[in-house]
User: What shape does this take?
Amino acid sequence: MKTYKKICAALLTALLCVPSLKADEGMWLLPYLKQQNIKRMQEMGLTLSAEQIYNPGQGSVIDAVVHFDGGCTGELISSQGLLLTNHHCGYDQIREHSTVTNNFLRDGFYAPTMKDELPNPGLVVTFIDEIVDVTDYVNAYLKKAKCNDPMEYLSRDYLTKVANAWYKKNRGKKPGYIVLDLAPFYEGNKFILSISKEYSDVRLVAAPPSSIGSYGADTDNWVWPRHSGDFCVFRIYTDKDGKPAKYDPNNVPMRPKFHFKVNSGGLNEDDFVMIMGYPGRTNHFYTAAEVAERRDIDNTVRIDMRKVRQETMLAEMRADEAVNIQYASKYARSTNAYKNAIGSNWAIRKMDFEGMKKDQQAKLTKYATENNKPEYIEAMKKIEEMVAQRADFRKQVWMIDEGLLRAVESVGAPVLDEKTFNELKSNADKRTKFINEKYLTYFNKDYNKEVDRKVTKAMLTAFINGTAPENLPAVLRGVKDINGFVNNLLDKTIYRDASVLESAIINGDYASYDADPVVRLSKDVHALHADVKGKVAGFDREFARVRKTYVKGIMEMEGEMNVWPDANSTVRYTFGKLKGYIPRDNVYYGFQTTMEGVMEKEDPTNPEYTLSPKLKDIYNRKDFGSYALANGKMPVDICATTHTTGGNSGSPVIDKYGNLVGLNFDRNWEGVGGDINYLADYQRSIICDVRYVLLILDKYLGAQRLIDEMDIAK
Ligand code: ARG
Ligand code: ASP
Assistant: This one.
């Protein structure tokens, strides 16, 4: 009886768990929404039809979503082109406009009238006009061009040529504001062309101070529960006819085909949400061998090397506020991918991704055997062989990259070849230009030689310990006294000072320049890097070919419509629910954070958790307007089971009616392994609750005119 019950329970769990394993997975392509997911989404609560979501140019959801500056996503929230994205996506623009006296990063920004909105040369956003499957055309083109080199047909550059030819033939003359992105999907088994309109008059309208926009900074980065208001506001302008146009003071606010209504009533746990945006890159077709490679080489080297650098930097930063300011952003950049790698390896081990992929390969082997498709089995074998053959070279490339190129500042010094050296020697203008534009922008006010000295000593020690002697760059071979080596490097180099460098160019000869310790280190490291990278690249062509075959096998076995193509910076949708999770035994994280947590984290001695008096005042007076929860608490961030990755930042998160409930800005570190395999129980998109956006605009920035512009639905 007992065993019978157990079997029943096991069967039941299996039945209940199997579908939910797949639930919410996927970064899906919009043209196949109807075939693939709309029914399930509607069963989960969605009230929109496929046409209301994807019907470009006809006033559907897609018309309110933009690719922001090539790397993020944004969405329109008014009939006058008001655009919402993340603070960390608009960071460069906010910083560009900041000065010591008008420090918008520190204090926030708000343009009281449209006239005050700030243009941003170089910033572009694009809207999808059409997405076309051009696989047959591309294959015919490649055949005619006798091109079967994956290095070409997988490259966006090469494909641009093909896209232009397709456009000319099928659409005619291309207006300047139309941009074409022809991308390979499923490793080149499919080619899809995105045709977009590009808008380049995009002005900054409002931004919270960093103490709100990136509250918790690096410590909270990739962490749930989160408490930051990671948003900022832009506006798109067009010419008088509504066409995309270069910046012009006479341009007018864009009148979009669709913009989101804002849901200020909030949602409950388990409510349906959908996200649309531009995820950058995933690897969910990895084989077992590639998972192990990622774990044991890529992630491990990154973690080990960055740890050494960060610990050394942090000790210096903690000891001296000036150093803290100099190195804060270098540190931040380093920790972002570091934490991601840790989360990735945690998931790979915890969920046994290697075993999962082996099972998938066993399934494909069976399918291939039964259907007489030996090429799929052969492809898997080849991948495994090549991963083994390239392992040593790959490790060397990662070591050089993470241990030296990204870590030791003098390795990146702008060094000269003989020809340039002689040009600079005889030409004062060129020399001044080099000193100002190359040397001084590299060794700038944020370069601190004493920090670099400590970091270099630590990195060279770690690098030499982790590298076989015969694989060291020439200049490091046989070095026993690292202290002496580094002191000589930094104190004796002509790069220690602009005037010393300049006089060495004027008075010295190339041979002695070339023997300078910094020049030697930089040149030797770069030469070795190029050499081993070339050795790894030697596998790329064949590797890409067999991966294409492998993925073809999976598509055939599973049915093409059941597998989503890896993210490749093209527009996708994902759907799921607002949901908390259990990060580890006996711990539960809810799906919604509130300002209680903002206050709990406050630490005036730590710049990451310093709050502005104004925000505290809003909190203390409970001046939450109509944005608070029923229990009186002010919502800040929410999390959902949706499948997102880097590039989804700024993406609209919408409810079952298509109204905006928040904007995506991060993932939890337990969920970053979802780039390789979706983690139903762990993976969460981290979203800024739109009510917090409204509160900050309304009560903190006094941006009533923006609130008035929006359609706010309760
Ligand atoms: N982890 C987020 C992403 O990958 C945010 C990164 C920016 N924030 C930071 N503290 N570095 O884009
Ligand atoms: N923080 C990421 C971004 O900026 C989002 C993520 O990786 O989940 O796109």
Confidence is low (pLDDT under 50) at residues 1-21.
